[in-house]
């Protein structure tokens, strides 16, 4: 079940925004600072980068392969900082990032090694890299799976076991620091619709060794 982000770009932009809990966890893990060069890999329509610019005055960079998604992101951010690319080709030669992240992207990538190796090369020594995704267990706990079990079958073929992601990152040289699973009790004051979308997230934090050998 592949999603056509070219065709979906407009509807994506209308219906998807920054999810507060994801943004909070990401901010806590990455600790953005003014002037940090931060790469959003698979930035979509650029929502998270815009929020980081607004809150922390970061220096934003985005990679997005879907033209229609990219055009929307380029309309909100400095256009030259949002470029076409993917896990096999990073379009910022010579640039090294302080912080990197990807949100809801990694399940689209079939060659995790390429992703981790290429991002490692683009990271400064001591850089942080955060991956936000969902574990197979979290996918199975979505309330709609009871009514549409075939969705789970399809999702389980696309999403990686968390341990496989951890190992692939380590094999490329990243140090795995921690994995955070969002907790239900954090969401007590949040509306039911919101809970349905964000309660089941897993965020993995890596760092590149500093100093490098
Ligand atoms: C669910 S959207 C998430 C977009 C954005 N990260 C967000 O949270 O709003 C997944 C995005 O990953 C992008 N994507 C798919 N395959 C990719 C790849 N190999 N490299 C980089 N991005 C990819 C898609 O084009 C799409 O914009």
Q: SSE layout and pairings?
A:
Blueprint: H1 5-15, H2 20-30, E1 37-41, H3 47-56, E2 59-63, H4 67-76, E3 82-83, E4 97-103, H5 112-122, E5 123-133, H6 136-140, H7 149-158, H8 162-171, E6 175-181, H9 192-198, E7 202-207
Parallel strand pairs: 1-2, 1-4, 2-3, 4-5
Antiparallel strand pairs: 5-7, 6-7
Helix pairs in contact: 1-4, 5-8
The protein binds S-adenosylmethionine (SAM).
Walk me through what this model shows:
Helix 4 links the parallel strand 2 and strand 3 (82-83). Mean pLDDT is 90; it is low at 185-190 and 192-198. The chain is built from nine helices and seven strands, in the order ααβαβαββαβαααβαβ. It has a single domain (5-207), classed as Rossmann fold (3-Layer(aba) Sandwich). It has a seven-stranded mixed sheet, sandwiched between helices. The protein is globular, with a radius of gyration of 17 Å. The chain is an alpha/beta fold. Helix 1 packs parallel to helix 4 (67-76) and helix 5 (112-122) packs across helix 8. It binds S-adenosylmethionine. S-adenosylmethionine (SAM) is lined by residues 5, 16, 41-44, 47-48, 63-66, 69, 86-87, 103-105, 108-109. S-adenosylmethionine binds next to helix 3.
């Amino acid at each position: 079940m592949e999603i056509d982000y070219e065709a979906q770009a407009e509807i994506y932009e209308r219906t998807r925004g920054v999810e507060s809990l994801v943004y909070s966890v990401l901010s806590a893990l990455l600790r953005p600072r003014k002037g940090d060069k931060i790469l959003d890999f698979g930035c979509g329509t650029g929502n998270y980068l815009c929020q980081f610019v607004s809150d922390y005055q970061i220096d934003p960079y985005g990679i997005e392969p879907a033209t229609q998604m990219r055009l929307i992101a380029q309309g909100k951010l400095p256009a030259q900082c949002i470029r076409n690319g993917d896990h096999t080709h990073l379009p910022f030669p010579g640039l090294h990032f302080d912080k990197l992240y990807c949100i809801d992207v990694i399940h689209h990538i079939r060659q995790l090694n390429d992703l981790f190796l290429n991002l490692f090369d683009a990271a400064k020594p001591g850089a942080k890299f955060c991956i936000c995704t969902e574990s197979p267990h979290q996918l199975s706990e979505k309330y709609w799976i009871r009514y549409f079990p075939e969705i789970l079958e399809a999702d389980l073929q696309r999403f990686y076991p968390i341990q496989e992601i951890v190992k692939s990152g380590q094999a490329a040289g990243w140090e795995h620091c921690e994995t955070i699973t969002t907790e239900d009790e954090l969401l007590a004051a949040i509306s039911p619709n919101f809970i349905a979308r964000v309660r089941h997230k897993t965020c993995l934090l890596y760092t590149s060794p500093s100093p490098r050998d």
